[in-house]
Amino acid sequence: MQQISVTEFKQWLDDGARGHPVLLDVREDWERARCALPDSIHLPMSQIVERLAELDPQADLVVYCHHGGRSAQVGSFLERRGFRSIFNLAGGIDAWSRTIDPSVPTY
User: Fold this and answer.
1) Cα separation, 64 vs 102, whole angstroms
2) Are 18 and 12 in contact (CB under 8 A)?
3) pLDDT computed for residue 63 by the predictor
4) Is 90 exceeded by the pLDDT of residue 23?
């Protein structure tokens, strides 16, 4: 699993040359209700095992949570299950809000 900063991720999205990754939000429902990144798939960490088949193991996956801890755990789990291209969004949605888009609420 690779770490990707919010700045690098924003450049990836803006550039478009690599295609659009799957953005996976592993936070809880109440966190998602507070704020979320656009075009993300919500799959809480507690549901990863039972919903694993919903994810494409060949896709570029950028996993995020509040600060990056849970998403790193999920990313490691996905790699052990054969997913080939996992990126953990370092600093999570909090870093995104503070660095890239202040309109995303912090909590």
Assistant:
1) 17
2) yes
3) 98
4) yes
Structure tokens, 80 = 């052990």
Catalytic residues: 65
pLDDT, tens only, 26-81 = 999 999 999 999 999 999 999 999 999 999 999 999 999 999 999 999 999 999 99
- Mark 70-97 as b/e (b = at least 16 C-beta within 10 Å): bbbbbbebbeeeebebbbbbbbbbbbbb
Q: Please give the CATH superfamily to which domain 2-100 belongs.
A: Rhodanese-like domain (3.40.250.10)
Q: Which long-range contacts (CB under 8 A, 24 or more apart) does 66-70 make?
A: 66/27, 66/31, 66/92, 66/93, 66/94, 66/107, 67/91, 67/92, 67/94, 67/95, 68/92, 68/95, 70/26, 70/27, 70/45
Tokens of 39: 């075009």
What the block records as the tokens of 15 is 């550039």
